[in-house]
Amino acid sequence: MKLVRRRTRKIPRRTVGAVPGTLQIDPEAPPTTVRVMAYGPDGLEERDIDDLEDLPGIIGLNPVTWVNVDGLGDRNTLTRMGELFNVHPLALENVVNVPQRSKVEEYGEHLFVVTRMAFLEEHLDTEQVSLFLGKNFVLTFQERAGDCLDPVRDRIRKGMGRIRKAGADYLAYALLDAVIDGYFPVLERYGEHLQELEELVTSTPDSSTVARVNAAKRGLLSLRRAIWPQREVTNALMREDLGLFSDVTRLHLRDCYDHVVQIIDTVETYREIASGLLDIYQTTISNRMNEVMKVLTIIATIFIPLGFLAGVWGMNFNTEASRWNMPELNWTWGYRSALILMATIAVVMLLFFRRKGWLGSSPPAEVSPSEEER
Amino acid sequence: MKLVRRRTRKIPRRTVGAVPGTLQIDPEAPPTTVRVMAYGPDGLEERDIDDLEDLPGIIGLNPVTWVNVDGLGDRNTLTRMGELFNVHPLALENVVNVPQRSKVEEYGEHLFVVTRMAFLEEHLDTEQVSLFLGKNFVLTFQERAGDCLDPVRDRIRKGMGRIRKAGADYLAYALLDAVIDGYFPVLERYGEHLQELEELVTSTPDSSTVARVNAAKRGLLSLRRAIWPQREVTNALMREDLGLFSDVTRLHLRDCYDHVVQIIDTVETYREIASGLLDIYQTTISNRMNEVMKVLTIIATIFIPLGFLAGVWGMNFNTEASRWNMPELNWTWGYRSALILMATIAVVMLLFFRRKGWLGSSPPAEVSPSEEER
Amino acid sequence: MKLVRRRTRKIPRRTVGAVPGTLQIDPEAPPTTVRVMAYGPDGLEERDIDDLEDLPGIIGLNPVTWVNVDGLGDRNTLTRMGELFNVHPLALENVVNVPQRSKVEEYGEHLFVVTRMAFLEEHLDTEQVSLFLGKNFVLTFQERAGDCLDPVRDRIRKGMGRIRKAGADYLAYALLDAVIDGYFPVLERYGEHLQELEELVTSTPDSSTVARVNAAKRGLLSLRRAIWPQREVTNALMREDLGLFSDVTRLHLRDCYDHVVQIIDTVETYREIASGLLDIYQTTISNRMNEVMKVLTIIATIFIPLGFLAGVWGMNFNTEASRWNMPELNWTWGYRSALILMATIAVVMLLFFRRKGWLGSSPPAEVSPSEEER
Amino acid sequence: MKLVRRRTRKIPRRTVGAVPGTLQIDPEAPPTTVRVMAYGPDGLEERDIDDLEDLPGIIGLNPVTWVNVDGLGDRNTLTRMGELFNVHPLALENVVNVPQRSKVEEYGEHLFVVTRMAFLEEHLDTEQVSLFLGKNFVLTFQERAGDCLDPVRDRIRKGMGRIRKAGADYLAYALLDAVIDGYFPVLERYGEHLQELEELVTSTPDSSTVARVNAAKRGLLSLRRAIWPQREVTNALMREDLGLFSDVTRLHLRDCYDHVVQIIDTVETYREIASGLLDIYQTTISNRMNEVMKVLTIIATIFIPLGFLAGVWGMNFNTEASRWNMPELNWTWGYRSALILMATIAVVMLLFFRRKGWLGSSPPAEVSPSEEER
Amino acid sequence: MKLVRRRTRKIPRRTVGAVPGTLQIDPEAPPTTVRVMAYGPDGLEERDIDDLEDLPGIIGLNPVTWVNVDGLGDRNTLTRMGELFNVHPLALENVVNVPQRSKVEEYGEHLFVVTRMAFLEEHLDTEQVSLFLGKNFVLTFQERAGDCLDPVRDRIRKGMGRIRKAGADYLAYALLDAVIDGYFPVLERYGEHLQELEELVTSTPDSSTVARVNAAKRGLLSLRRAIWPQREVTNALMREDLGLFSDVTRLHLRDCYDHVVQIIDTVETYREIASGLLDIYQTTISNRMNEVMKVLTIIATIFIPLGFLAGVWGMNFNTEASRWNMPELNWTWGYRSALILMATIAVVMLLFFRRKGWLGSSPPAEVSPSEEER
Q1: Which chains touch D (3 or more CB pairs under 8 A)?
Q2: Fold of C24-161
Q3: Judging by beta carbons within 10 Å of its beta carbon (0-12, 13-18, 19+), is residue C30 exposed, middle or buried?
Q4: What is the pLDDT of residues E92-133, one digit of tens each?
Q5: Could you say which of 1.10.418.10, 1.20.58.340, 1.25.40.20, 1.20.120.450 is the CATH number of the domain covering B293-371?
Q6: Is residue B159 within 8 angstroms of chain D, CB to CB?
Q7: pTM of this prediction?
């Protein structure tokens, strides 16, 4: 599993100085499909829309109509959608020129909300969801097909909870709540990943470990950038002035706000933990270097003096030129004395190192992460 | 003692996109038991409730009724409790889907408070306490049996202080105060633990020390996350608008707020101290590496040149081929001169190292933590 | 490409204690040229102005007049411009004594806006644009010829969008928007540059890499200083009190504000990434040092003991003086045994090192930046 | 001098869940003594109070009465004091359960102020001063006898300044001002201490230096925690609503507030300086390690190759078996050539090292702290 | 040039608990001189005042009177000045007990402003300027003779600008502006100094470099402490309530405020740059250590194995005792084979090192600071 964000164009594609309100269609964007769910306490109509001109006939027939648009590749469809729902050109530009920062804006009688889903399939990925909320409709735009909104669709289809009885504002809340809930499994995966990294970093770290910790940090940074503005979004919705949200829905939004704060809390904690991992890594590396140095020092410190002694008795001073010239070479006990002296020196050195505490190699760090909180 | 938080599921268990207000019972949650203390200045009735339908008959008989629910494992009981006390489904969801961030919310006529107890038995652990305050009752939910509220129970039983004469608001305050007070012994343990770690880090640190310091840092991070929102909670209670709190109780809440601020202060100080320990650790390690290097350098620097000299006089140039070929080998004083020269070089080297200050090994850091403030 | 800011005099040239309102012309400033675009829904007049006294005759003939001044080297022209447009001396001083921090100030009936363009040709460079907005004119001053405003000119010339139909306030917005948009390509280049640096830092970093990372950090710091105050500028314009901005233009300013926030977000993220690169660099360097040490230790630890043994058997103890003096020299298997012993020691050492995991050189960090988000 | 805080129980002694308002007397607290100064423009009465029941008779006789209580060890005296002055039980609990955070609270008609004195005798120490201000009295509680309030007593006794003419509010201000002023000599000592540490850290640092810098940092952290809340206290007093403070005294409080801000400024600067010292220490240590490595490298790099050469000519190839076998051993110039070659190699190496700049040992850091600002 | 602050007593000289409003004359303070400039549109009178009693006769004769007092050593003069201008004792104490934090305070009808000049002659130094502004006079106190206000004096003398026509408020502004402008040349010097340090740090850093960078950091810290409160001062003046400042002067104050913000910006940037220099230093040092280690490793790794081989063939095994004992010594090609083997090993090692990239010494960091922005 790679918990890094898939490479996406994080800076919106803008032609410098383009006319404001221009739709800058990404040529790689998938084609646009439109699907409608219109429902009320008594019924549900769900179908794909091939001809946009059918839309006006559908809206208003049911208490709530949810029009979902997947794929931002078809300029004509998008422009026509904008006209049908009376969307301001600047808002439509924000829908298309992804990514935008999450935000809430009022345009006349409807509310424009930009939010962001987080996925973790093979990579971390985020996708912009733009939502227009009117009196009796919700209009959503997504970058690609596939989303985390299926539970909401199920609840509508099966009439679970109060969604079928409530208005468009409750649908908007339910969609936002589903988007926010989608961050929890992502966080859970990051929690597990950090635990793996911690075990790695204290046992067998190599230089790729740092790269992985950094990748995790960067992924968390992405998450942070995605979730922070959503706090403001939820807060703004609770306080909006257009009167679109009922008191009951506001109560639910308060709950949703709590979830966002909880996600932010967790992301910040994970970021601190990831930073701590780098400290542990540095320590592990220092300890290893230390151990390498100790081995070198022990070996060199024992054998260099001994080698010197052997060198002395390997000198060729002429024992016959003087009786003071290396007489030990001719002693009966000479060689044995030399060996015993050398052994004594080695033992003394070893005792010195033991006293220094260098002989016991430092044990691996004993963190039992199973007892750690994530 | 391990001052690390027990591994708990820090992210609430949520089925993505579940219907809001759904109780997601943790299959491992302990079964639910209900206990009532109903009291007034004149009397006290305390008993376990087996049949929830007895409850309505008890409430209102005494000026104050405290219903305590331990264990979140029994969906029926919890749901029925919610109905009996007219608890909003979203609030009940917050009770069950632990952990929630500490907060205060108004629901109609009663106040919903989420707070968090800290324990330190074998591990650091925290547990959510959810509290509903009505006109004449307090309803508390705890994750498990066992809490830090026994002193409050004792005061009710023995009629100590003003608790029996005061209303439900004072009971709510007393419970909150007991929860907050429970952080002080935890902090005291952390203070002692940091002192132990400091002694360790300046005397015989190994790589497990860093892991322990990090564990302490993480535990403090958990405490911080638990206590910070409680500040807001206490503050919000002092300022609540429902008129549930009397002026006297508000005065007590101000005191409680001071305790929270004091705990926050201490946690932040401990976090700074823990970070400082890592600096000291790095320094201790650097000093050790330095000492290792010095020993290597002293030994190598003395004996490598001497070894070279011995090597020179061990060369086999033919002294008979020329009178310039190693004539010293045949000198009467040759060997003795060589040895004296070597000894002289060694002494000069040692003097050089003493002048450099390398011979005195650096003493261990002298912190006398007994004089340090925690 | 060098993503460092060209050396410019960042502190405005001020004669200490000069009379406030004095124009302190930089002797190296390019000469001043004036160009006018006067337009309305029905027409466009565009021409260079050689004689400033023509200006009063032009303004007012068309609904909107844009007077652009390039080059701040000509005191007379600038002073005369100030008189013609009734510019306050302090404002004019701010125009000339570049660089000034971006800001909005009201002077009587017109608005004075200081903003800052960012370029990235060979180096990162920024240039001050000063803008005066009156009822029916916009007056801009630039440090040098050449800017990022050509798209606006094109839109005026070709009548694209609503610019020809809108008033001077919309022109001011359009210019500001073009200035802000000019940061996006700069950011994109920095994104690519950071990616290159990341590849470098994990593969073949040398000391120039740190210098380059630092240069990028400093460039980002410049960008940050340039863009932060623009947030305040955009915000102040949305809230200005003179009534110069229409509601429609304010809506567009809100969009512009979003872009500024997005740029700030990205700059902050890049700064975090750049700081992370220095961590990776440190790690790479540590790993290399470690590897160097390992090679030294392996070689020294194997051959120093072996060299000692060879030295022992190279001693000249007289085998004839005693049968205990180095008898092995005369053994039939002496030499072969010695070689076998040495080989055995070497093999044992190698096994020890393999067990320590020192023999496998640590692989280069495996970041696959193609999967990273920028 | 040890600039570390004496080990005190930093977390107030609390029996978990005790009845709020309970006095938890520290068994080690010194006994309680009470002393009264009652004065007005015309006279002064100063005496120890042995029987608390005398107190009511004294208060009111003079315009201002200052009752000072030293030592918090006597429950009865403290309780009776509380009753006599109508002190709220929660306030009295705050007086006794030290340490409390500095704060201002209104209780009915009088003001309760908690502040904190800083001492530096052998160790840094702080002591809580609790102050009650009524219409015509000031009541102070101190943990121990001995304080920094003698200058105020002198001024009262000698009638210096306006203190005898002013009311109880001015006395309260004067006491607070004396407490604040007591921080300046402490800061001065820290300034000198940091200067000593800086000299140490750049000249002969050892591992105890880091411990001392850390102790200083921790002491400054204590000071910071003690002084920060006092800013709020002074501010709150300037803005209090009970009308206890006259305009003149408020002017003096403004002055007092300035002193607090100045102390905070200095503490923050000292903290930055102390952090900088750790950087310098790290650098000094790195430089030393570098120097050690250089000596090792120079010696080893010169003598290991020379030793190798000596070893070559010490080989025992039989010169008689072939004329190609070590013929140089028999050359007339053999030995001399060998020595000359070795000397040449050594000189070349030395030149190489000089070119690398390794021979000049790096000079000690030249900070002339006498020119530094503290 | 030393860009460190001259050692000054940064904590004001206070006798603990002194009577508030006491002038604590520094015995080393220079004697006090008084000089008056009284002027209006029509005339200027400028002279030294020897007898303070002349002052009342001068004030009021001209529209504006500026009384400047240099030197704070003469208690009588200062006290008398205070009486003449009706200065509050607390304000006068702030004038004398330098240094005070910059601030604005209202005392009855006049405004008391404390500000701070920055000088950079041999050292960085700051000096307090205290300014009283009344209806028709400005009274300034400086610690020493010599200031940066001469340009203002010149403008008054020569009647440049509007100063002679404007009131005392404009004079106060002009003085403040001159004080603020005095920071720009100081900053410019710091900019150059940082550039020098950057060149040093990437080319030939030694341990004194860190000390110099730290000195620069500390100097910038001093500047920061001096300039930050001036922002508040300028802001407070723009908003003061006494009506002393005319609208025109407020416009000029807005300009002055911009300069302060610009200085703050630059100081913060310089502080970041200085911190970055320490990173570069650490890197340079690490690289050097790395290079030292590489040289040691290359030499040792090549020659230790060769030395071992030489040692083997220097062993004295008796070739005559067995034909297996060192037969190579008697081979015709023995010596030549040995030398060739050794050379081969050396070459193989060198190839190994080249492949590792250790042979090319890392080039010095290539920052071309001439292209950097300051």
Answers
A1: B, E
A2: Beta Polymerase; domain 2 (3.30.460)
A3: middle
A4: 999 998 889 999 998 888 899 999 999 887 788 889 999 999
A5: 1.20.58.340
A6: no
A7: 0.83
